[in-house]
Amino acid sequence: MIDLNSDLGEGFGVYRLGDDEEILAVVSSANVACGFHGGDPQVMARTVRTAVEKGVVIGAHVSYPDRAGFGRRYMDMTPEELTWDIVYQIGALDGIARAAGGRVRYVKPHGALYNRIAVDPTQAAAVIDAIVAYDRNLPVLTLPGSAVIAAAADSGATTVTECFADRAYTSEGHLVPRSRPGAVIHDPAAVASRAVQLAREGTVTSIDGTPVKVGARSMCLHSDTPGAAILAVTIRAALGDAGVPIVPFAS
User: Fold this and answer.
1) Which domains does the chain have, with CATH numbers?
2) Contact, 64 vs 75, CB < 8 A?
């Protein structure tokens, strides 16, 4: 089985980003922006209401305070600053989710923070401290081999690993930086084929053609990729045809 998650609710004000409603009809988990890289109270409320209506599990998509850079710029924050920024974001989304009849069930860091805590034990520990302070039962969605896995184990928190069907991998199992050509895969047939390979075999073909082992319980579909809604439908259909059940990792 595999969970399908997507980063959603990343527009704000009059600015819309992604095909949220279409993707919420396909995925099993929604990583909802909490206002720091995207989203605002109205967008958050609209997104979680739709998620609740469709039976999609809600996760807090937390970020550095970097709206202008869409959360994709690294920031040097003290552990205390980062911890309470994360608590703030989880609490904001959880309050809105509860008002809509749902609640936050997991946490997924966004962008630069996601990549930073994969290799930085100090910031990884700060993120885990925030989750433990708010609700230690909330699992954290992260990359296999991430530093946050060790930090979570030290604190008794839970991690869930994920993979990406529409992103290229290096031969070391890392995501190819978006600044490099070919980092994002747009062809629906290629993405669907990779999704089935990841779900059934736990491997992916790297950008240089070598097979890489990637064990994951969840698969991320980026909502801001052009044609994301078509990719999401194609992936779900391909997984269904391959006999792979779509089941949320959190409940």
Assistant:
1) 3-241 (3.20.20.370)
2) yes
